[in-house]
Design brief:
The structure is a single chain. The chain is an alpha+beta fold. About 40% of the residues lie in helices and about 20% in strands. It has one domain. The chain is built from four helices and four strands; from the N terminus they run H-E-H-H-E-E-E-H. A two-stranded parallel ribbon has the order 1-4. It starts with a helix and ends in a 5-residue tail after the last helix.
């Protein structure tokens, strides 16, 4: 969590440059809260602004599979693009 906090601090406290890799489990169990939630602001009917958090499912490369060979095949075949797109600015 320290590494995540430092990285977020260097990038305007956002997850924009974090590319998670889902190896096993479900996102809600595998990813820390710092990646699964984002701060939001709400404007109420009376015009006041209140802050809260919203749960999100991060865009992650999903290589969940039965064995290492299957995970690597998934990574090479499709999930590589999920990792490469944000790095390349979405220009694939």
């Amino acid at each position: 969590m320290k590494e995540l906090a430092i990285f977020r601090g260097l990038h305007e406290n956002t997850n924009a440059h974090i590319i998670p890799l889902l190896v096993e489990g479900e996102p809600k169990d595998a990813f820390p809260e710092a990646i699964r939630f984002k701060p939001v602001s709400y404007v109420l009917e009376d015009g006041t602004v209140t802050k809260g958090i919203e749960e999100i499912e991060p865009l992650a490369a999903d290589i969940r599979a039965g064995d290492l060979a299957a995970k690597l095949k998934k990574l090479k075949k499709t999930e590589y693009f999920r990792i490469a797109a944000p790095i390349l600015g979405g220009a694939l």
